[in-house]
């Protein structure tokens, strides 16, 4: 009888310790807290640094609007894309606001809020390239530029492009565009809205064009959302409430119109 009682006490103490550990590992946020946000930082017009080195862009404005709605201070840092999820998991920041596509693979690593914009991907080629077919067969022998670790990179691999073409990988979205203009790659693939609002606003883009259909869904994701740690459902819920509020009160649309003349969702 005494042995059973001691075992039961031990179980209860174990449950209490586990609950305490869970409570300690999951932060509870208040209005006076600072929300630490990571964005990519080299991805205009979504996030980029101005001439003074300050972070600007659609995602930066959205992050600041959400912090204002939550009445929290906002601390936004730039993080290279291939390390952005590991940085979140390592608790270097609390949320990622970086136009991240909600892919099945990423859902295993992070908890996503509701989406805050749709996304489609497209190829760009030189107008005189003769490229019309952007299937793996149509791009056989070509060099395709894409950001390393992006959903477009995953999509190219999933659809067998590396078997027929050469995938040239870059650490930012601007680098493949520069190499396309310089003739070092034959095509690039990326976010269509980004191309529209950035690449096609530059003088050097006049000899280039979209080609082929728009792509979305699957490994390209079902829109873009904010990522938090898997165990941080409290922050996810608070961000969803704040996101809903800035959409309803017109703040979201004011930010969108600053960068795009068309809806994002």
Write up what this structure looks like.
The chain is of the alpha/beta class and 265 residues long. 37% of the residues are buried. The protein has two domains: 34-119 and 221-259, 3-Layer(aba) Sandwich (D-Maltodextrin-Binding Protein, domain 2); 121-220, Periplasmic binding protein-like II (D-Maltodextrin-Binding Protein, domain 2). The termini are far apart. It is 37% helix and 25% strand. Residues 1-26 have low confidence and may be disordered. It has helices at 2-25, 58-70, 84-89, 104-107, 151-158, 161-164, 174-182, 192-197, 233-248, 251-259; strands at 34-39, 42-43, 47-49, 55-56, 73-78, 95-101, 111-117, 121-126, 143-147, 166-170, 187-191, 208-215, 224-228. The strands form three sheets. Strands 5-1-6-13-7 form a five-stranded mixed sheet. It has a five-stranded mixed sheet with strand order 10-9-11-8-12, sandwiched between helices. A three-stranded antiparallel sheet has the order 2-3-4. Strand 3 and strand 4 (55-56) form a beta hairpin. Helix 2 (58-70) crosses helix 9 and helix 2 (58-70) packs antiparallel against helix 10 (251-259). Residues 34-263 form the Solute-binding protein family 3/N-terminal domain. This is ABC amino acid transporter, periplasmic ligand binding protein. Keywords: Signal. Residues 1-30 form the signal peptide. Pfam families: SBP_bac_3 (PF00497).
């Amino acid at each position: 009888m005494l042995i059973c009682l001691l075992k039961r006490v031990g179980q209860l103490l174990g449950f209490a310790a586990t609950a305490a550990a869970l409570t300690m590992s999951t932060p509870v946020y208040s209005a006076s807290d600072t929300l630490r946000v990571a964005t990519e930082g080299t991805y205009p017009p979504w996030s980029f640094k101005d001439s003074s080195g300050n972070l600007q862009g659609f995602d930066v404005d959205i992050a600041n609007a959400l912090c204002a709605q939550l009445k929290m201070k906002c601390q936004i840092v730039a993080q290279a894309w291939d390390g952005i999820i590991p940085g979140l998991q390592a608790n270097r920041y609390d949320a990622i606001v970086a136009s991240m596509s909600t892919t099945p693979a990423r859902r295993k690593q992070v908890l996503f809020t509701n989406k805050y914009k749709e996304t489609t991907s497209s190829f760009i080629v030189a107008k005189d390239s003769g490229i019309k077919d952007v299937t793996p067969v149509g791009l056989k022998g070509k060099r395709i530029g894409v950001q390393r670790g992006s959903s477009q990179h995953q999509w190219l691999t999933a659809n067998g492009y590396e078997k027929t073409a050469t995938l040239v990988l870059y650490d930012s979205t601007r680098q493949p565009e520069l190499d396309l203009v310089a003739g070092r790659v034959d095509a690039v693939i990326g976010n269509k809205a980004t191309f529209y609002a950035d690449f096609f606003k530059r003088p050097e883009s006049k000899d280039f064009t979209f080609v082929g259909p728009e792509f979305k869904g699957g490994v390209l994701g079902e829109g873009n959302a904010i990522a938090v740690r898997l165990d941080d459902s409290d922050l996810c819920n608070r961000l969803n409430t704040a996101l809903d509020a800035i959409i309803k009160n017109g703040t979201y649309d004011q930010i969108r119109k600053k960068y795009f003349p068309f809806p994002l969702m």
